[in-house]
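Reviewer 2 asked us to include a model.

Predict the structure of this chain.
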Amino acid sequence: ADGAFVRLETADDVPEVRLDREQVTEALTLVLSSALEACSDPADVRVRLTRAEEPSGPGGEPAPAVRLDISFPAVITEHDLGTDPGASARQSRRRMELGTAERLLEANGGRLVRPPRDAGESALTVLLRAAR
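Predicted model (structure tokens):
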């Protein structure tokens, strides 16, 4: 009851996905914990789950997908996501965790979309292909 509260918004038309539940749960946990760590108040974090259309490959037709946006007011920059030998231990751990999440998502046909540099609010986006 006293744990972190994250707002979750879901659309009614989100398609089903086929994936390795443990791997994707671990990936989403790493992404969400990075967002929570960057914020002073967990209530500032918002998770939105919607239907999206993603290209099925180079030159391919768009196919249904699930889009999961994790929004938060703190900014996770390219510095946090890149490889910088002068980064703090905290930034290095965040990079490592987000890199692990990205690999786990890719192994399940998904991807992690990094936030735009000029955004006032950060959003990490996870895209997962819909089951066929």
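The chain is about 30% helix and 25% strand. Helices lie at 21-38, 78-81, 89-107. We have added this to the supplementary material.
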